[in-house]
Specification:
- By secondary structure, the chain is mainly alpha-helical.
- It has one domain.
- Helices cover 55% and strands 0% of the residues.
- α1 runs parallel beside α2.
- The longest helix has 33 residues.
- It is rod-shaped.
- This is Flagellar protein FliT.
Length: 92
């Protein structure tokens, strides 16, 4: 296996690992980007990974929009004033 092919395989392995673990926490890894173009024999694998990444990005953007809507709704909840009494004495 050529060094360029090996470098691309390592990079694609990192991408796949990150996608597989996307629901959990994974520490960021340093990426070593190969300096030569991707070999033709792994282009199909790279395109499949790219498609998975694009789906993941779409999901993240949808989740982000949902969180933004929830935060917007929470901001409309009136805050409790600390100088107002917590209880009202109706008997006394």
């Amino acid at each position: 296996m050529s060094e360029n092919l090996a470098a691309w395989v390592r990079l694609l392995d990192q991408f796949e690992s990150a996608l597989d673990a996307a629901d959990g926490h994974t520490p960021p890894q340093a990426l070593e980007t190969p300096t030569e173009p991707i070999p033709e024999e792994i282009r199909e694998r790279a395109e499949a990974i790219l498609a998975r990444q694009q789906l993941m990005i779409g999901g993240v953007l949808a989740a982000r929009a949902q969180v933004a809507r929830q935060l917007n709704a929470l901001r409309r909840v009136p805050s409790r004033q600390t100088d107002a009494p917590a209880y009202l004495d109706v008997e006394g």
